[in-house]
Amino acid sequence: MVDVTPHGADLIPPAEVGEMDLYHPHSWWTKYVFSQDAKVIAIQYSGTAMAIGLVALVLSWLMRLQLGFPGTFDFITPEAYYQFMTMHGMIMVIYLLTALFLGGFGNYLIPLMVGARDMVFPYVNMLSYWIYLVAVLVLVSSFFAPGGPTGAGWTLYPPQAITSGTPGGQDWGIILMLVSLILFIIGFTMGGLNYVVTVLQARTRGMTLMRMPLTVWGIFTATVMALLAFPALFVACVMMLFDRIIGSSFFMPAMVEMGEQSPHNGGSPIMFQHLFWFFGHPEVYIVALPAFGIVSDLISTHARKNIFGYRMMVWAIVGIGALSFVVWAHHMYVSGMHPYFGFFFATTTLIIAVPTAIKVYNWVLTLWRGDIHLTLPMLFALAFIVTFVNGGLTGLFLGNVVVDVPLSDTMFVVAHFHMVMGVAPIMVVFGAIYHWYPKIIGRMLNEAMGRFHFWVTFVGAYLIFFPMHYVGLVGVPRRYPELGDTAFIPPSVHTLNEFITIAALTVGFAQMVFLFNLFWSLRNGKDAGDNPWRATSLEWQTAGTPPPHGNFGKELPVVYRWAYDYSVPGAPEDFIPQNDPRPATQGGPA
Amino acid sequence: MAETTLGHADHTAPRPPGLRGFVADWSSDQRAFKGVSWGKAMMWIFLLSDTFIFGCFLLSYMTARMSTVVPWPNPSEVFALHLFGQDVPLILIAIMTFVLISSSGTMAMAVNFGYRRDRRKTAILMLLTAALGATFVGMQAFEWTKLISEGVRPWENPWGAAQFGSTFFMITGFHGTHVTIGVIFLLIVARKVWRGDYETGARGFFTSRRGQYESVEIMGLYWHFVDLVWVFIFAFFYLW
C-alpha cells in the first residue's frame, strides 16, 4: 500500500489549520527551564525518567544481591527487600517507561513527525512536565520518610498495602506512593490531551492519518488508552487513600490485625484488583504500543525497505489497544472469581495474540530481502522482536486459566513480564535513543560503546530471564526475599540464582556505559548532519539539527507520500522524503 | 500559516461508502474533525477521560452497595427534610438538581449571546450560571452539614452499611469540586468577556495566547458535562 499523491505539486490541499500562535521565549529561564517548547519538555521528561529509572535499576541490583546471596548483606532485611521490589516495579512501569515513551518520545516526535510547530497547548504541556516532576519528587521523598517507602508490591493490593505488617503501610510510605500516583495521572492527562489533539487536529498539509509514521500511531493509540485507563487507577488511589487516612472501608474487610479488631468493615479487596487491573492491563500496552510503532520505523529505515502491510499494522495497533480493555481479569485467575469469568478473559487474552502476531510477521517480512544495515538501532530492533516473541509465548501459558493457576505467583510470571514488557520495550527505548539522538543533539552516539552496550544488554537479559523461567517452573515463588531450606527446591536453584545475580550486575554495568555514552557524545560524538540515517519522515527534514524553535522553517512542509518510500524501484536514491513532491523516478534528496 | 499559492485540488470527491468511507473521513488530511478548534477538541477528549473517572467512582459505589451484607440506608429517608410539620423526601436534592439544570440553561444562552458578540448579556448570563453553581455547592455544603450532624461519617453511620457515608462524601465531594472549579473558570471567562479581551485580542496572563469567544462555548461544554454527571449521581445514588 503505497500512499503517494499521484501528480505531486498539482494536488496540494489548502491549509485548514491556521498558523500556530507560538510562545517565543525571551529569557534563559523560559527557554531552557520553564520552556513551552515540546522538544525541551521532551528532554526534561526523558532526563527525569532516566534519573528515576537509575534508582530503580540500583534497587534491582540490591534485590538480586539478596536473592543470589541471601543473608550476606545485613541491610537488606525482608522489609527492605519488599520496599526495593515495590519501588523498582512502580518506577520502572510508570515513572520510567510510561513517562519516557509518552512524555519523552511523544513530546519530541509527535510535532516533528506530523509537521506541527509545537504541541497544540504548549503551556499545558509545560505544566504536565512540572507536575510529573513533583510526582517523582514525592515518590523519592518516601525513601526518606519515617518507615521508608511502601513495601506493598507494585500492585498495592489491599488489605496488606495499608496494614501495619507491610513496610510503610501504617507510616508515610503508602500515602506518598498514592499521592505521587495521583499527581502523575493529573500531569499525564495534561500532556496526553496535547498529544491526542496534536495528532488529530494539527497535522500539516498532506499528512493524512494513513500517512503518519507508525511511531506516531503507536504513541497516539497508547495515549488514548492511557487517558481511558488511568482514571481507574486514579479512582483506586483516591479510595485507598481514604481507607488509609480517614478510615473508610472501600477495600478493607473486617479483620483482626495484631490481635485487635481493625476499624474497617465490609470493604472489598477484589474491587481494588478490578480497578487496578482495568488500568494495569492497558498499561502493559501503553508501554508496548509506542515500542511497536517505533520499532516499525527503525526496521523500515535500517532495512531500507517499506514497512510490510502498513494498513494492517495500523489496524493491529488500534485493535490491540481496544482489546486490551477487556482482558484485565486474566491477572486475577487466582483471586477467587467465577470460573466462567476466567473463561471469558482467557478467550479475549488469546484473541490479542492475533493482531500481535500480525505485527511480528510484518516486521519479519519487512526484513525479508531488505538491505539490512546492522546499525545500533537495527540491532536493538532485532533484539526487541526476538525478546517480544519469547515473552509473548510464555504469555500464552499464563493466559490460560488451568496453566496459570500452578504458575501464578512464581518466578515464571516474573520472567514472563520482564521479557515482554520490561526488556522488550527497553530495547526499543535504547534503539530509539541511538536512532534519534543525532537529531536531538546533532551528534552520533559512540559506536563502540554502543555495541558493547547492546551485546551485554541483549545477551545478559537472556542470561537473567531464561533461567528464571526454570526457577519458576520448579515452583519458586515470587516476592520471597529468601528461600531457605525448602524441600521442593533443589540446590541447583540456588546456583542459578547466583548466576542470575552476576548476569544482572553485568547488565547493570553496561547501562552505566550507556549513560556515560549519552554524556560523552554530547561533545565528542561524530557530527551527525541533518539526516544521518537517510530517513524519510519529517523530523529528518527540519531546517537545522537540532530542530529550531518552531521546528520547521518559514513554511511548514507539505507531505506528498507515506513515510516508507525506501528503495523505490527506479528512484535515483534509496529513500524519498515525505515532503518530496516529485514522482519517484525523479525524486530523492536534492 | 503563510498564504499559499499552491494549486487547489478537487476535495469534494465522494468518499467511498461504508467502513472505508468512515475511515477515509476520519483519517482525512490535516484534521480528523473538520471545523473543530483545538480547544474544543481538547475539552471533548478531557471530558471523555473524566467520564471514565466518574464511571469508575459510580461503578465502585454500585459494587459496594450490591455486595454489602448489611442494610443500605434508605436514601428517601436519609435525604428528607422536615418541612411544614412533615418529612418531604429528597426535597433538597430536587431543588439542587433544579438549580443545576437551570444553570445549564443560562449557560446555553450565554454561549448563544457569545456568538452574537453581545458582551454584556454573555457576561451577565455567565455570572448567573456561576451564581447558580455556587448556590448548588452551598446547598451541598448544607446537606453535608446536616448529615454530619446526624452522625454520618466516612467510616460509619447510624443506619447501616459504612460504605454509604464513604461513597456519598467521595462522589458528591468529587462532583462538588468539579462544580467549584467550573464556577471559578466561569468567573474568569466572564471577566474576560466583560472587559472585551476576546475582541481586543488581549493575550492570556499564563498562556500568552489570544482568547476567542469560543472559550465561552468550551466553558459551556464543561458545565453541561458536570450537570450530566449530576443526573447520573442523582439517579444512581438518590433514586436507587
Per CATH, the class of chain A reads: Mainly Alpha
The assigned structural class of chain B equals: mainly alpha
The top-level CATH class of chain B is Mainly Alpha
Biggest β-sheet: strands ordered side by side in the sheet of chain B: 1-2
Query: How many β-strand stretches of chain A?
Result: 2
So what's the oligomer here?
Answer: heterodimer
Tell me the distance between the termini of chain B: 54 Å
Protein name (chain B): Cytochrome c oxidase subunit 3
Membrane topology (chain B): Multi-pass membrane protein
Domain Heme-copper oxidase subunit III family profile (chain B): 43-240
Transmembrane segments (chain B): 41-62, 90-111, 123-142, 162-189, 219-239
Fold and architecture overview:
The complex is a heterodimer of chains A (590) and B (240). By secondary structure, chain A is mainly alpha-helical. Chain A has a single domain, classed as Cytochrome C Oxidase, Chain A. Helix content of chain A is 60%, strand content 1%. Chain A has 14 helices and 2 strands. Chain A has helices spanning 28-33, 38-68, 78-114, 122-141, 173-201, 214-245, 269-302, 310-323, 339-367, 376-399, 401-407, 411-441, 447-474, 491-524; strands at 256-257, 260-261. In chain A, strand 1 (256-257) and strand 2 (260-261) form a beta hairpin. In chain A, helix 7 (269-302) packs parallel to helix 9 and helix 9 packs antiparallel against helix 10. With 240 residues, chain B is mainly α. Chain B has one domain: Four Helix Bundle (Hemerythrin (Met), subunit A) (Up-down Bundle), CATH 1.20.120.80. Chain B is 68% helix and 3% strand. A two-stranded antiparallel sheet of chain B has the order 1-2. In chain B, helix 2 (38-67) packs parallel to helix 8. The longest helix of chain B is centred in the C-terminal third of the chain and has 33 residues, at 163-195. Chain B starts with 17 loop residues before the first helix and ends with a helix. The relative contact order of chain B is 0.13. Mean pLDDT of chain B is 89; it is low at 1-11. Chain B: It is a multi-pass membrane protein. Chain B: Belongs to the cytochrome c oxidase subunit 3 family. Chain B: Keywords: Cell membrane, Membrane, Transmembrane, Transmembrane helix. Chain B: Its main location: membrane. Chain B: Residues 43-240 form the Heme-copper oxidase subunit III family profile domain.
